[in-house]
């Protein structure tokens, strides 16, 4: 009987010692979740401001985006230092068919002469489900493949100021001076931010 009581006392001691550890772990997880939600909310505000700025400069772009299958907005900070430069940023892709929100990242590496900081924001407009789905599942890299300024039959001049960079996919680039007359995002890769998304975005294998 005494042996059983000793074992019970030992077990209770272990339980009491474990409670603070479990509590700290739960608190840490809650803190991380709260920080992620704060980052998401800050990004929502920033990307919304970018859209408002675009609409102010190109009012017809609002109609194009509202009637598109989806869109994505990236807040980009690029920099150059000597011959080595690069850039990074974050953004959101919105599926307007079902309201799905996908948080994404962008990264750019480049080599060239320059010194200073260049800030710009990028907006994508997706006209088809295929273009949007491929963008968020496979990621996409801009390799300077933009064609002339968009004047498609579907949106008329609503996409004025943007460039078609892939089938069903247009891109605006806005700098601190206004809408860019040419794209300067060569080598930039756009991909899903798995840390900020509530659910993992499925990956799609590239065709061989």
Structural features, described:
With 208 residues, the chain is of the alpha+beta class. 35% of the residues lie in helices and 36% in strands. It is built from three helices and seven strands; from the N terminus they run H-H-E-E-H-E-E-E-E-E. It has helices at residues 2-57, 61-66, 129-138; strands at 70-95, 100-126, 140-142, 163-166, 169-175, 178-179, 188-192. Strands 1, 2, 3, 4, 5, 6 and 7 form a seven-stranded antiparallel beta sheet that branches. A hairpin with a 4-residue loop joins strand 1 and strand 2 (100-126). The longest helix is centred in the first third of the chain and has 56 residues, at 2-57.
| Low-pLDDT stretches | 111-116, 204-208
Radius of gyration, in angstroms, nearest whole number:
24 Å
What is the percent of helical residues?
25-40%
**Which series of helices and strands comes N to C?**
HHEEHEEEEE
Taken from the alpha-carbon principal axes, the silhouette is globular
Distance between the termini: 71 Å
DSSP strand content:
35-45%
Q: What is the count of helical runs?
A: 3
Number of strands: 7
What's the story with the biggest beta sheet?
A: 7 strands, antiparallel
Q: What is the overall pLDDT average? A: 77
Structural class: alpha+beta
